[in-house]
Amino acid sequence: MAAVLIPGFLLLMCFSISPSLQHISEAEPLVRFKNSVKITKGDLNSWRIGTDPCGGKWFGIYCQKGLTVSGIHVTRLGLSGPINVDDLKALANLKTVRLDNNLLSGPLPHFFKLRGLKSIMLSNNTFSGEIPDDFFKDMSKLKRLFLDHNQFVGKIPSSIMQLPHLEELHLQSNKFSGEIPPLIETNKNLKSLDLSDNQIEGEVPASLSDRKNLVMKLDGNEELCGKAVNIECEAIDPKEAKDSIPPPPSGGTDSNRTTVNAVLLAVSFLIMCCIVVGFIKKRNKKRNAGFRKLDKERPSDVVEVKVPESTTVKRSTESSKKRGGNAEGGSTKKGSSHGKGGGGRGGGGGGGMGDIIMVNTDKGSFGLPDLMKAAAEVLGNGSLGSAYKAVMANGLAVVVKRIRDMNKLANEPFDVEMRRLGKLRHPNVLAPLAYHYRQEEKLVVSEYMPKSSLLYVLHGDRGIHHSELTWATRLKIIQGVAHGMQFLHEEFASYELPHGNLKSSNILLSESYEPLISDYAFLPFLQPNNAQAMFAYKTPEFAENQEVSHKSDVYCLGIIVLEILTGKFPSQYLNTGKGGIDIVQWVQSSIAEHKEEELIDPEIVNNTDSVQQMLELLRIGAACIASNPDERPDMRETVRRIEQVKK
After folding, report:
1. End-to-end CA distance of the chain, in Å?
2. What does pLDDT average to over the chain?
3. Where do the TM regions start and end (predicted)?
4. Are residues 630 and 502 in the same domain?
């Protein structure tokens, strides 16, 4: 195969964006909204009067069919101050407001004025105060409410539990008190409820504890009781409580002696308290000084490598066709350890090549010089960027992915997210090893998988790796992907899309055909118009209503299940839809005509028993691709059903 020289990783540093402007009336209320808050960690300069919010250039704006604003997703910009909801009333089709991970404060904004909202996500701010009991009574369309990690107090509004279409409610890590209101009987959709780490008390309502398929978290509320927390609720008889109080002491001398002893005991107790408080203050003072010092230093879980500003390298490449387009990288060999010096965090904009920041040293440590001296092989281009395989001098092989269109993301939030991803440990999830940050460029380094992607093994040159895709291997892959997705949905429960881009090119295969999921949890990194290149945005709910949710990941998992069972390339992966097989229409029509067995890949049909298992999985995959997301099982239920299919 012909080799092509690439002049170093400077090749990765070039991309451009061409603007287009068009006036629309919705720009004015959005600009007023922007001007009502303070922005401390970024900007919303793309929000300008006279430009089109649906033209693809407004950061954080989603539009319905490209015509009218349906969502505001502005996270991690350090927005502070109260919110004036009145500015948003002019957006007639607004369905989603996502302002999590900011510095917004004050009471809960009057979102009840926006009766068409389906999602409100305000996690990780500093909102406070009580929420009126009837706050949500007119918000009957609301499906998702995330108010977790704020400072709300008082009782949980009963109007929340009266919402007929509520699916996800996250109120954890606040200071809510009192009892949990019962859930309205007509609500059949609630799937996720997190009330942990509050001050809630009393018995958990039967309408929740008896609910099947409800994932409920209540830990951190010590006064709760009932079946849901396995603590029996004991009624207290007021008469018994009164009788249990000891009578006051009688007798003059004995009474006086008792009084003196009590006073002495109280004084001794106060002296001891003063000593303890003084000790604690002294210790905290030392500890806080240590915290201030640590704040100025590099956290211990990040290994930083300073590198030269320029290096001359030679690079070889092979055809991307062999690797199936969107492979990710890695090796099981230990890497070199370079550059023990410090330096800035990830480079920043302009000047120099910056640093490689290690976030996962399971495969050893390496620096940018190692990559610069390595021979690079172009693996292909995916929806999020280009991928390159680099084999370093010591034999360590990695994949470097350049993720496009992330220029608005500041260094600090990118660093926090990458470190979080680097800490993930699951046998079916590929954690990144390192990253490189520049204002105009973000690179993510991960482990290289020699067997490449599921896409390539299924539909590539159909060589020896394809012949090894027996029924047992395919079932192993399906179950591994399902387990990995359940882990991601639990780890990133507050994300609108825990994965967002699940497809066979983002499932890598180890030597033993263990699947590893890649390219997950990137949605917070991307601008909305660029995020729409992700596969979850090709679901029926986005095409119809410009909405995505956890159920969109379920849809993508269903496509993969059907792709593995049929052996066919889904046309859904293609932007034009031309090419491959419309696997959704094919499966649904075949099931309707009772021709399910015709769907199964002939290469894996061995005996009657295996066919029956394949048909079970086929029905699970078909349930996952239902047009209406409400009719799909959630990820937890999907995994449970898949796990029941035995080899």
Report:
1. 40
2. 77
3. 262-280
4. yes
State pTM to two decimals: 0.58
- CA gap 504, 512 in Å, rounded: 17
> Are 313 and 422 in a shared domain?
yes
* Whether 587 contacts 599, CB under 8 Å: yes
> Are 423 and 395 in the same domain?
yes
pLDDT, residue 388, reads 87
Q: Got the DSSP string for 193-234?
A: EE--SSEEEEEPPHHHHT-TT-EEE-TT-TEEEBGGGTB---
Count of all residues that appear for the chain in the document: 647
Domain boundary among 447, 470, 495: 447
- Tell me the Ramachandran region of residue 316: left when phi exceeds 0, alpha when psi lies from -120 to 50, beta otherwise: beta
Neighbours of 278 (CB within 10 A): 10
Rg, the chain, Cα only:
29
- Where b means 16+ CB within 10 Å and e means fewer, 415-441 reads bebbbebbebebebbbbbbbbbbbbeb
Going by their DSSP bridges, the two strands 397-403 and 385-391 should be labelled as antiparallel
Which residue type occupies 145?
Answer: L
pLDDT at 473 over 60: yes
* Whether residues 464 and 411 fall in one domain: no
Please tell me the number of Cα atoms within 13 Å of 570 on its side-chain side.
Answer: 25
What is the C-alpha separation between 432 and 420, in angstroms, rounded? 10
Edge to edge, the sheet with strand 103-106 lists 80-81, 103-106, 126-130, 151-155, 175-178, 199-203, 223-225
Burial class (CB in 10 A: 0-12, 13-18, 19+), 66: exposed
Q: Are residues 336 and 351 in the same domain?
A: yes
131-171 confidence digits (pLDDT tens): 999 999 999 999 999 999 999 999 999 999 999 999 889 99
Average pLDDT estimate for 16-42: 70
| Token reading at 245 | 């109080």
With the C-alpha atoms ordered 172, 175, 176, 177, is the resulting torsion angle positive or negative?
A: positive
Q: Where are the alpha helices (DSSP H) in 333-379?
A: 368-372
Average pLDDT estimate for 167-177:
93
407, 463: one domain? no
- Amino acid 44 reads L
Residue range 297-342, pLDDT digits in tens = 333 333 332 222 332 222 333 333 333 333 333 333 333 333 333 3
Q: What is the pLDDT of residue 576?
A: 58
Mean pLDDT of 441-457: 89
In whole angstroms, give the CA distance from residue 647 to residue 397. 34
251 Cβ contact list (under 8 Å, min separation 6)? none
